[in-house]
Amino acid sequence: MKFKTTLLATTALTVAAVSAQAQDMADSMTLVSWGGAYQNSQQKAYVEPYLADNPDVTATWDESSAEAVAKLRAMNEAGNVTWDLVDVVASDAMRLCDEGLAMELDHDEILAPAPDGTDASDDFGDLIVSDCFIPQIVYSTTFGYRTDMVPEGVEPPSSVCDVFDLETYPGKRALQKRPIDNMEWALYCDGVAKDEIYDVLGTDEGVTRALAKLEGIKDEVVWWTAGAETPQLLADGEVFMGSTYNGRLFSAIAEQDQPIGMMWDMQSFDLDGWIIPADLPEDRLARVLDFLYFATDTQRLADQAAYISYGPARESSAPLVGEHAELGIAMGPHMPTDPANATNTHLYDYEWWADNRDDLDAKFQSWLVN
Amino acid sequence: MTLTIIEPKPVSFVALVVAAAGAFAGLLVGTAHDTPFMGVLLGAAVAAVLAVVWLTVFRNERTARWLTFVAFGAVGFFYVGLMGGVIGLAFGAFFGWFIFWLGEGRYRAKLPPYTTAYQVFLHFLFRVTCGAIFIFLITPILVVMPLSFNAENFFTFTPEMLRLDPEGYSLKHYRDFFSNSDWQQAMRNSLSIAPMATLLSVGFGTLAAIGLSSEHVPFRRAIMAILISPMIVPLIISAAGMYFFYSRLGLQGTYWGVVLAHAALGIPFVIITVTATLVGFDRSLTRAAANMGANPLTTFFRVQMPLILPGVISGGLFAFITSFDEVVVVLFVGSAGQKTLPWQMFIGLREQISPTILAVATILVAISIALLTTVELLRRRSERLRGMSPG
């Protein structure tokens, strides 16, 4: 894993150097994101304020983050990169960086320092998992359940292992159609210690063991591929519990008043952030850098949390997280990073998955069809 | 003029057929209450008893039908509520009519008197099958419509909706469509791309069809096959090809790029429909026009065009709908600035299952129906004016 590298030698180039290019900036940007509530939070927290400060600039959204890697490859091959800034999950950023499709960055040079003067690279800390990646949020994949489908006389589910317990909690489950997270949860609930999960999963017996655990609930599983599916299935009462991104569950519970409860146990953290496509023309690059400097500063990332329950990636933003923009409820307790929610978490190992993804995907898919 | 003698049929026969229909209705109701088997038995029994009573004990059609109607409605209302009442009324109306329609032998009224029982059976089997296919095709579209009035942000028939409670319904998804700038931009894009693409398709397609139906053009079949190919080649292949080609030309991500791509997809439809109408076109008319001193252009617009117009219009309609419904090619050839309605719907479905999509779908269905009806009415009118229609 490429953690933040030591490019600090170039700190001589300061922010002033970036803003000095201000004369020659393109007046339009194409931003790529995920659509839905998440994109809306970006729009409200930093795109609208930025456009208000720069009235001659226009920003266009392209909701293509799900296929960003494939599309960037095609654009690169066609020699026609139309995107200026792309929102991707950390693992995609690493792939794009390795393939040379994303631009390598010096975080301290292009990003604002924290209000107390801490360098950006220290403020983001370990979350800068790739030289091309500028993290925005920490989100987690976790479980929600229908509160009105809990059998009588039984405690509501509180542990991830309740998902595998069909006797106490009968009913359908929604799980993501991929091995990541599911395999780890299965091993954990099969009695593997948390810090040994990846060692066990690295062996053939470990994979068999994880799949055997999943086999126990396979008949009751509805497999999902888009984050919107689980909230829909839960709202319909089609499933009793299901995994999805924590922000989706927050939205279904707090904004849509659905009878759904959160289960934070063994939530799996992941990161989402920006990459800049490689080899942008100079004027467009200058515009994007100007926007990025603004959009990733401490206050803007904290503002984003008023629209969606994802944790800001900067350490300095956490104390500034306030209330939900419309509902007026404090957002702190709904963040995946809140200490009360993060008592037992699962640290998803990017590096391990980068090495084993293809192999496990194949095994998982063939298990699915059998 | 009817020669068929309508006479009452034996009660045993009627009871049997009505019982079968009752079993089917019972299956539907029973499934909704998780006891399909009980539903079948009860449905068949109730229907058979009803048939026997109405045809033997109390044979007064008017009163009997009203009684069935009201009784079924009351039972439905009593056990389930408003929705059950409505369904009960529908069932009551059907069974009241069905029993006497069979019992009095009216079902033979429109059939020739010499048809055998087997032929009558086949006749109605055919009709029922057609109806079933029709329902199978249309139900997914119809289900969308009530759901689009959902008061919640999920694709769910909420208990309030099923109770026909006004609380469960709202126009908020329609409001969202008309007030949300993303949807409005998508609507504008669709409305500016589709007509232009249609115009190009119709122009080029009509010219190509006329050219290809003249006998002196060499390699007609080969040219035709190439022009039709966008219909046959998988869309994703055309889309990827266009993407790389248009990128080199600098057309990718531009308005004209999308218009040209959609025109290419629409041309085959125009060629096919216009070629079909040209088969019935008498070439001696153009010679006659030339004989009277009209130049080819005048001949085309004054003589040929009016006669092949129905083909041109329906081809144009297909081209319009192709462009209006197309999502694959525009995802490749367009950029975020040319987001059309189907693209916006695709995003909405993938990232956020919002009933706004259903509201849009309902509006689009309504527009399509209006469009097709208008064209059909215009066509009939012009045929009547020209005395081509027999009726």
Question: How many discrete domains of chain B?
Answer: 2
Overall structural class of chain B, as computed from helix and strand content, comes to mainly alpha
What is the assembly state of the chains in this entry? Answer: heterodimer
Strand count, sense and closure of the main sheet of chain A? 10 strands, mixed
CA distance, first residue to last residue of chain A: 34 Å
Domain ABC transmembrane type-1 (chain B): 187-375
Subcellular location (chain B): Cell inner membrane; Cell membrane
GO cellular component, one term (chain B): plasma membrane
InterPro entries (chain B): MetI-like, MetI-like_sf
Tell me what you see in this structure.
The complex is a heterodimer of chains A (370) and B (391). Chain A is an alpha/beta fold and 370 residues long. Chain A has 2 domains: 8-132 and 276-334, D-Maltodextrin-Binding Protein, domain 2; 141-268 and 348-369, Periplasmic binding protein-like II (D-Maltodextrin-Binding Protein, domain 2). Chain A has helices at 15-19, 36-53, 68-78, 90-98, 107-110, 120-124, 182-189, 197-201, 204-215, 229-236, 246-255, 282-295, 298-304, 350-369, and strands at 28-32, 58-62, 85-89, 134-146, 173-176, 221-224, 241-245, 260-275, 311-312, 345-346. In chain A, strand 1 (28-32), helix 2 (36-53) and strand 2 form a beta-alpha-beta unit. The longest helix of chain A has 20 residues, at 350-369. Chain B has 16 helices and no strands. The model of chain B has no long low-confidence stretch (mean pLDDT 87). Chain B folds into 2 domains: 11-115, no CATH class; 181-354, MetI-like fold. The two termini of chain B are 21 Å apart. In chain B, helix 1 (11-32) packs antiparallel against helix 4 (82-103) and helix 8 runs antiparallel to helix 13 (296-325). Chain B is mostly helical and 391 residues long. At the A-B interface, helix 2, strand 2, helix 3 and helix 10 of A face helix 10 and helix 15 of B. Chain A: Keywords: Signal.
